[in-house]
User: Fold this.
Amino acid sequence: MSVRLSLLAILDQGPCYGYQLRHEFDRRTGSIWPLNVGQIYNTLERLERDGFVRRGETDAHGHVYWRITDTGSAEVARWLSSPVRRTTASRDEVAIKLTIAATLPGVDADAAISAQLVAIREHLALLRSDAPVTASHGEAELLARSLVRDAALFDAEAEERWLEHLRRRLAEHPAHALALGLATDRPKRGRPAKPAAAPAPAVA
Amino acid sequence: MSVRLSLLAILDQGPCYGYQLRHEFDRRTGSIWPLNVGQIYNTLERLERDGFVRRGETDAHGHVYWRITDTGSAEVARWLSSPVRRTTASRDEVAIKLTIAATLPGVDADAAISAQLVAIREHLALLRSDAPVTASHGEAELLARSLVRDAALFDAEAEERWLEHLRRRLAEHPAHALALGLATDRPKRGRPAKPAAAPAPAVA
DNA sequence: ACAGCCATGTAACTTGTTACATGATTTT
DNA sequence: AAAATCATGTAACAAGTTACATGGCTGT
Assistant:
């Protein structure tokens, strides 16, 4: 929901045309989160469908301006005044992946962790090299981009820490203390029925 | 892609029926990432469509077993051996939101930051209270769940750090050093055409 | 003339997510 | 008999993402 609402929040500052919205988003978030242009027009149509924006005038240059509605402004205000909740949807891809890997017998979780560590450290080096932040124009742009970079940096550092933590935990425990085979003896309740083929054994 | 591939990786251990897959996923990730049951069946159909699983036998209890294909196993191996890349799609919702908020003139970014800090600290307190980790069965389950919890914890801590960092930065700089009004004088190139209404002024 | 950017738009598709329908079985 | 759980499935949708088509303008 962040792209959609970010665009809406920018529109709350005044009418913009599609390409301009992209520029405004880019100025603020920089090269770390480039936005495909097509997505802008997509999102604008969906915002219109939901009553948050109206298609406005076309100027002499052919630019199609979009205007926020009152409903849209209210939505922006609501967005800004309420925090992002950590819901079920806050799924950390790396954490899911490696937890699953670590709990599956026969999977080389160490290798997966190492590969992830290499990748994240490369990423950290890149972030720390300042490359993404330079090549801006105004001071405000520079500041904004450094903040975005720092967010990515802190996040990557947290990932690195967790990976090291995970590796330590795995090392502490014997061979496969974490290994969880497929549970057997499951069907205690529910739905015995239809005649069928042979029951599949729960793996080797 | 993590749910889809996690389910596939579990199936790589042996045939499972839908509900069982949910159980296996839950055992490993615990209450932090509950999985809607419907999603399982959805995902299985999509995996079948992509040739990664086959619908297998139905046992005496009516359980429909699914089997991974060779293509599917290869996919799991590929997944496990390659790290998750930090691509453009690694979008941090909070970071986007507050960067946008901080760069929009007239927006009370401090309030938004404070609200987010309150929320994240509540979340941290909850995570640290151990509540999500207890109430497991085996030792392995306990370990797995504590790892998942730690991932959430490290992530939340990183967010807290960034929020404090952001607040500091905003305090350091005068009033609205970060404020970026909508850029004017944009249309230098491209597409002058059609006659139209009045050009919309770039806000007050 | 041509490459490259400005600009708008369309179509298709991905994963994730939820709500709902259905029905059997076990527990209380 | 009712409630809770096991189990399978369907339908619809959200948000993000990409690929493609079109065309005009600017700079070389």
Remarks:
- Helices of chain B lie at 2-11, 18-29, 37-49, 70-81, 93-103, 109-128, 139-172.
- The radius of gyration of chain B is 25 Å.
- Confidence is low (pLDDT under 50) at residues 190-204 of chain B.
